[in-house]
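One record is given unchanged without comment:
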Amino acid sequence: MKDLVRWLAALDPSVLQALPQATDEQINQFLKVVVQRQLLLEQADAAGIRLTDDDWRVLRVQHDSAISILSSVLNLDPRMLMDSASTPEARMAFAMARVQDYFDRVVRGRARFYPVPPFLGETLRARGEWSVEQAGVRRALERAKEIRASADSSESPGVPRMTPAPRPTGVDTSPRRSR
């Protein structure tokens, strides 16, 4: 399952969007392709095949570009972090405040959501200490409700209100228990 999740993260987003509407046969074919790719990677690794210098250069450019975009949307860079706080705890608080500001701007529609690239997210989760706290989830929900109520009360009369897009058909959104 872990390998499948990594493959899903590496795929073109349009492929992922098509999966919920795919037939059983299409899903079976997709899984065969993923398994074949995984086996090929394992064989290449066993044979000692490595990336070329040009391959590494391309990967570094893509990585650096993603980090630059994240730095820009969060309005946070290493120099600013070092200049703004003298202790690790203060730097963490400063960075968290920037992330909170970004999420507030996204919820208010003032900034576009930019997801953390999947492999960066995986690395951060593996190397950092983190948890999902129910109190934080409740706080985020309350904050979103406050922002929505504020936006609803400031709407101009006679201006049509935007409504959410309809959900795709054939997608089961019922709650499920995870194991």
Observations:
- The radius of gyration is 21 Å.
- The first helix runs from residue 2 to 10.
